[in-house]
Structure formats: structure tokens, C-alpha cells
Amino acid sequence: MIPGIRLVLLGKQGAGKGTQALKLSRHFHVPHISTGDLFRAEARSGSELGRALKKSMDAGDLVPDDVVIKVVEKTLTSGAARARGFILDGFPRTRPQAEALLRALEPLGGLDAAVNLVVDTDVVVARLSGRRVCTRCGANYQVETAPEGGVCENCGGEIVQRDDDTPEAIQRRLDLYEQETSPLISFYDERGLLAEVDGLGDPQEVFDRTVKLLHENGRR
Ligand code: ADP
Ligand code: ZN
Predict the structure, then answer these.
(1) Under CATH, which number does the domain 6-119+180-203 receive?
(2) What is the residue extent of each domain of the chain?
(3) Of 51, 127, 156, 172, which has the most beta carbons under 10 Å away?
(4) pLDDT tens digit string along 16-27?
(5) Confidence band for 200, pLDDT divided at 50, 70 and 90
(6) Which of 138-152, 181-195, 196-210 is the least confident region?
(7) Where are the beta strands (DSSP E) in 144-205?
């Protein structure tokens, strides 16, 4: 039986968290939990909560901590995530979220590592401006190389540009990353959980680097 893993992915918007999360979740046979994907699905459902989430997301603002924490805690402490672990993509993004996660995982044995994907800001801005995503499975493409007809290669879902990949919302999200999320790098470093990976280059190379580092650090 392949051992599971409990991983957090850190990194700026466009650093490649979604792409790496998908690869890592297949490798370790654990669910990929993306708070952005969960919120976009809720927004598409048209519920009252979904409409409120869409407003925050389209402006590039953060969803309030209490809402995010409730959604994630429920997902992590049930089903496959509880049994085998998870790849968390887009959570935590604030200090209160990181503390809530530590508390929720205490009875389960804690995190294995927080992987920080390091990429310069000018590179992520270029990636986000050309980004296209699958509305069903969350797979990421670049406009020049996206499949013809706008149909996802993984799942057949529709490929679109995200409503928050506008220049204004991209800037707002990167500002919030600096203020709220980048302090989590030292939060995890202080707890001996940080693994820093160069996020430049081919996605498969970044993935190989990540798995090698986790292995060397005795995380897996
Ligand atoms: P990105 O990281 O590129 O902004 P995501 O798909 O991870 O994209 O998230 C999209 C939006 O969902 C965010 O801009 C924010 O509004 C909301 N969101 C996702 N995760 C969180 C979180 N942990 N805390 C607060 N808001 C979140
Ligand atoms: Zn898809």
C-alpha cells in the first residue's frame, strides 16, 4: 500500500500550485483540495453563499477566514482526506487559517510538509495573463498551447479564462499574497515543516524536484 501524505502548497498566484497539486495528488493517491476550485463550484451553483463568494473572488479579495475554515475543516476531517491525507492548494492564506489547520490536524498527526513554490513576480504576472482553466477539473493551460475547441484534455470540460485573471484583480491578489500569505513561509519554517522548491521550468521537472526534496527530508 502506497503511504499517503499531508501537504500544504504555498506560492504566489501563478507559481504553479494547481498544476503541481494535480501531479502530487496522483503520485501519492490523495485528494487535491483547492479552495479556489471549491469556491468556484459553489459560485456556479448560484446559491446565496456562491454569489457572495463570486463577489470576493472577482475583485481578487480574500474570502473571510471563518467561511474558508468551515469549508476546509469539513473536507479534511472526512473521507479520503482523513484516511490518506491531501494536497492543499490555496489554503492556508492567512495566519488564522494556518493556526486553524494546525489545530484540525493535531488529532490526525499533523502536516508532513509545506512546499513553497518559488517564482519571481514578473514571471507569474505573465503566466496569469495568458492562463486558461478547465471549469470541471481545474487543469491549467496557456492561451498559446490550450487544446483547440476549448475542450479539456483530462476530462472533456470547458476551458475558459477566469473572471479574476484581469490586470486589476491579478495585482490585488499579488498584493494580498505579500501582506497575508507570505508570512506563512516563516510560520512553517519555524515549525520545521518548510520545503522550498524552485518553481521555474517544465512542470514535470518541478514535480521531480519536489518529490526528491520530500524524500531527502524524510517526509516521504
Ligand atoms: P489564485 O491563488 O490564483 O488567486 P485560487 O483559485 O486559489 O486562485 O483562488 C481564487 C479566489 O478564491 C481567491 O482570489 C480568493 O478570493 C478565494 N480564496 C481561495 N482560497 C482562499 C483562502 N484560503 N482564503 C481566502 N480566500 C480564498
Ligand atoms: Zn478538465
Answers:
(1) 3.40.50.300
(2) 6-119+180-203
(3) 127
(4) 999 999 999 999
(5) very high
(6) 138-152
(7) 159-160, 194-198
Rounded-to-integer distance, Cα 218 and Cα 5, Å: 12
The pick from 17, 55, 62 for probing ligand 1's pocket by mutation, whose C-beta has the most ligand atoms within 8 angstroms, reads 62
Nearest ligand, CA 68: 1
Distances (CA, A) of 25 to 6, 35, 119: 10, 15, 21
At 125 the pLDDT is: 96
Question: What's the rounded Cα separation, in Å, for the pair 35 and 114?
Answer: 16
Which pLDDT belongs to residue 1? 67
Q: What phi, psi does 29 have (nearest 5°)?
A: 55, 50
Q: Measure 151 CA to ligand 2 centroid, in angstroms.
A: 8
Q: Which residues form the catalytic set? A: 17, 93, 131, 162, 173
**Residue with CA at minimum distance from ligand 1 atom 8:** 36
Please tell me the pTM assigned to this model.
0.91
